[in-house]
Amino acid sequence: MKKLLAALLAGGLMIIPAAHAQDKEGEAASPSPQAAAPAPSESEVTSNVAGDEAAAEEGEHETPHYPLKRPAELAWTFAGPFGHWDLQQLQRGYKVYKEVCAACHSMELVAFRNLEALGYSEDQVKAIAGDYTVTDGPNGDGDMFERPAIPSDHFPSPFANPEAAAAANNGAAPPDLSLIAKARAVERGFPRFVFDTVTQYQEAGPDYIHALLTGYGQNPPPGTVIQPGTHFNPYFIGGPALAMPPPLSADAVTYDDGTPGTVDQYARDVSSFLMWAAEPHLVERKATGFVVMLYLLIFAALVYLVKKRVWANTPH
């Protein structure tokens, strides 16, 4: 055992000087970084300067964030904890949808009978549904057939299928508008989204729809490339331009209540209607939430008072 330990110790002492010698040889063979690096030539300096200029130019023309403009926050009757629907506005918005938007956009998650919530009577809803034709079946012979719509039917699509919708609109099918007011919105960023919890701001969808519908006709910023067949809109969330042409124009829809037919009014009314379509029970939800919060506050106060009463005579 002693001989084995002596042999191992001797071998270790021999390895250490050898390794130290190899390190010295490596240091002598490798020149210092200052001596190894040759002076840059004039062509290399020129190329580096050109590269820096190209990088700076690329930074100036980097991909912008969309939308180019943020939608303005508008005043809506359904905003806030005590918001409510303006039934006259919802009826005007439905008329704008029916006469303008329904030519391209479906609303397949909304049934005709839901329109009674807008103040229409049962007979009026039946008359509205009767203006539409839906495909039903199969019949006894196994064939599909068409019939007038009834209140339990949903709003039909203007196209037979998504492929037909895309073929008629330059390859992109128009989106369904049933939930568009909840599905489209612009991120508000920090710290605004923190205060939205307190102010209960939930109208980003209608604000975006209104801004998009009224944002046509502006000049694009210098350097913005607009593809043929598209229309510049600084409020579009998907790019600088979209394929949909301006859908609204002054006096395009005649309101039954005499409200002026301006583009801004049309956009406000149809945005409100689409918000109702996306969340028809919004008012009931807010009322229920207010009662629940009031109950929790009263319950918390009672718990605190009971706790003080129970522990009043207990020494701390």
From TrEMBL:
Heme c binds at C101, C104, H105, M244. Residues 28-44 have a biased composition (Low complexity). Binds 1 heme c group covalently per subunit. InterPro entries: Cyt_c-like_dom, Cyt_c-like_dom_sf, Cyt_c1. It is found in: Membrane. The keyword tRNA processing does not apply. GO terms for molecular function: electron transfer activity; heme binding; metal ion binding. Residues 88-260 form the Cytochrome c domain. GO terms for cellular component: membrane. Its cofactor is heme c. Its main location: membrane. Keywords: Heme, Iron, Membrane, Metal-binding, Signal, Transmembrane, Transmembrane helix. Residues 1-21 form the signal peptide. Gene3D superfamilies: Cytochrome c-like domain, Cytochrome c1, transmembrane anchor, C-terminal. It comes from the Bacteria. This is Cytochrome c1. It comes from Consotaella salsifontis.
